[in-house]
Amino acid sequence: MKRILAHIILVVTVSTVFAQNIPVRDPHFIRDIEKSTLSLDKKAHSAIKPFYFSDYKDICADSAQYEKSFLYYGWKNDTAKKPAKFYALPVYEVFNWIMPTDRLDYRYNTHFGGLFDFSLGDKFGISYQLSTWYLDLPDYQKNYRYNYLIYNNLGMPTPWNSFMLFENDLHITFSPYTFLKLELANSRNFYGDGYRSFLLSDFASNYPYFKLETKFLSIKYSCVWALQKARFESDPLGMPMITSQNKYSVFHYLDWKIGKRLNLGLFESIILKGDYVFDFEYLNPIIFFRPVEFNLGSEDNALMGTNIRFVINEQNMLYGQFMLDDIIIGQLINDIKHNINPDYTGEYGWFANKWAAQIGYKSYDIFKLNNLDFFTEINLARPYTYSHVRVQQNYSHQGQALAHPLGANFVESVSGISYLGKRIIADAKLMYAIVGIDSTNTHFGQDIYNSTMDGNQGYPYIVNSYGNVILQGIKTQLITAKFDFGWILKENKNLSLNIGYIMRYGSAETGEKQTQNLFYFGVKSNFLKREMVY
Fold it and tell me: What pLDDT is attached to residue 382?
C-alpha cells in the first residue's frame, strides 16, 4: 500500500512539467454546467461532482471564476509551451444571527479564508482553500455525539475553543491523458443528480482521498479510496469509553449515457475497519466488491446502488436513486405481500432488509425566465439503513452521515426554487419529513450510529428480527424552510449583501414540539456551500 501511494505521488510530482485541472466553485458556473448536461447532443455526465474546468471549457473559463471576485491577484505566463496561471482571492462570510425567543438573541458568525489556484497547461492543477470559522450556529446544526461537539457539514472545532474551526480543502489533479484524471485531495464527493444523495453526499466534513476518474465512449467512471474517522462509544453498558479510529472507504461509480436521454449510474462502496491492513483486493479499481467480500470471508460493510436520469428536454429532467445496504429477495417479497394485504400472517419486515429510494424532478429557466430554476424530490429510507453491527463501520465520517443527513427510517419531501442573476441571488427551500426516532434504550432504526443486529447483543436495546416497518418508533414531523436573498454589490462580482430566514419546526407524537425562528443578515463571497435544510 505504501509503495503504491509513493509511486502515485512520484508520478504526480515529476509530471508537473506537462501541466491542469481546477474544480469549479462559483455557483453560477456550477448551475450552467448542470443545465448544459441536458443537451441531447452531448455525452454529458452530471452525477459525478465536483466539476472541473478542464471538462467544461465550452461552458466557462477558469479565469472568469477569479475575475468575478471583488478582490483577487492573478499571474499568468502565456509565453511558455505550457502556460502557467496562479490566482489568489479572499473567501469570507460575516453574518449576524437574530434568534427571537423570549428575548432577542444575537449571535455573530465570521468566516475568513483564502483560495489559491495554480495550473500548468491543461493537465496539472492545485487548488487550495484554507478557512477559519468562528461559529455560534443554531442548535439543530450542532451534533453532540459521544460528548464531541460536531458542526454538521463542517466537522469538529479546535480543542482550545469550541467556537473556532479550521477547514482545509485541497485538490491536486493530474491528467496524463484527456480521458484520465488522477486526484489527491482533502475534500468531498457527491454522486447523484438530486438535492440529496443516498449513494455518497457532501454533507459530511472533508476527508483525505485519492481518486481515479476516466471517460471513454459514453461512460464516465470514478473510483475513490478514502481515509475517514469513526467515533463511537466502545462500552455502552459499563464505563463509557469514547474511541476515535481511522477507517478506510472505497467508492466506485460508473455513469453510462444510453442514447440521448438516459443516464444510468451504478454505485458500490465498502467501509473497512482501520485497525488492520487494507486488503490488496480492494485496490483494484474495476472489481465488484460483493464477490471480493465472499472470497475474503469479510464482514466489512458493503453497499450497492443505482442512479437514473431521464432528460425530457433541454430544460427538464427526471431523476432517481435506489440504494441497497442489505437485502434478501424472499424477505422483500414478504414485505410487498404485507403492504398489499395488512392481514398477511407470514414473516415480514426483516431488520436487515435495508434500502433507500429517491425520485425527483428538476427544471431550468422556468416560466421562460433565464436562471430561474426549480426542483422537487421525495426520499425514503428503511430502518437501520447505513448502520452496521460494528458501529465504527457505519456509513459516516466524523459523526456526520455520508449519505442523507436524517440517517434512516424516514420519508421526506424537499423542494426548492432559485434565481442566480447578475445582481440578484434568491433561494428558497422547503423540507417536510416524518422520522421514526428512538425512545430511551430503544433502537428503531433512525440512528445510524447505533450497532444493528437482532437478538441480545449486550446493548441496552433490542432489535427485533421481524415486523420492522418504515417510520416505526416515535413518529416525528420535521419542517425546515429557508429563504435567502442576496444583492450583488457590483454586477458579475462575488460580493453580496444577504438577508434570510430559517424556520425549523419539530413535533413528536408524544406531544413534544419545538420551533426555531432564525433571521440573519451579512456580507459574503459566493464560493461557499453549506447544508442548512435538514
Answer: 96
